Structure formats: C-alpha cells, structure tokens
Amino acid sequence: MFARQLMRNFTTSAIRRSGHGDPGGYPGANLPFSIKNRYKLTAYFIFFFGSGLALPFVIVRHQMLK
Asked: Could you list the residue range(s) of the whole structural domain that residue 54 is in?
C-alpha cells in the first residue's frame, strides 16, 4: 500500500514537471530569439544562412591561395 501511494505521488509530480505545456501561450514563445523586431530578425537570418552558404567558397579560396 505504501509503495502504491509513493508511486502515485511520483507519477503525478513527474507529469506536472514534464514541461510539455504551452510555455507562453503565443506564437514564438519557444524560440531562442525574439521575433518582435523585424530588422534584427532579418539580420539574424541573413547572417545564419549567408555564413553557411559562403563557407565553402571561402574554404576553396583559402586553399587556392595557399
């Protein structure tokens, strides 16, 4: 009986702390960056995708200049 009560208490507390709920209740609440400022967001996107696209060309240029 004690084990059953202990298990019931553990499972309900684990469900309560699981964190699967809606964190903020609005779109973008779970993103690691702010989407409020459109110009800052645009700069982040350009930097993120631009650096990934430019990297192979920079590496090839470095190898050709060696």
From this structure: 33-66
Q: Do the domain assignments include residue 15?
A: no
Residue 17: helix, strand or coil by DSSP?
coil
The answer to the question of residue 59 being in a domain is yes
Q: Pick from 35, 59, 39: which is nearest to 47 by CA?
A: 39
Cα–Cα distance measured from residue 52 to residue 6, given in angstroms and rounded to the nearest whole number: 52
pLDDT tens for 26-38 read: 888 888 888 999 9
- Cα separations (Å) of 11 from 1, 8, 22, 24? 16, 5, 20, 25
Q: For residue 30, give the nearest of 20, 18, 40 by alpha carbon.
A: 20
pTM summary value: 0.52
Tokens encoding 59: 């590496």
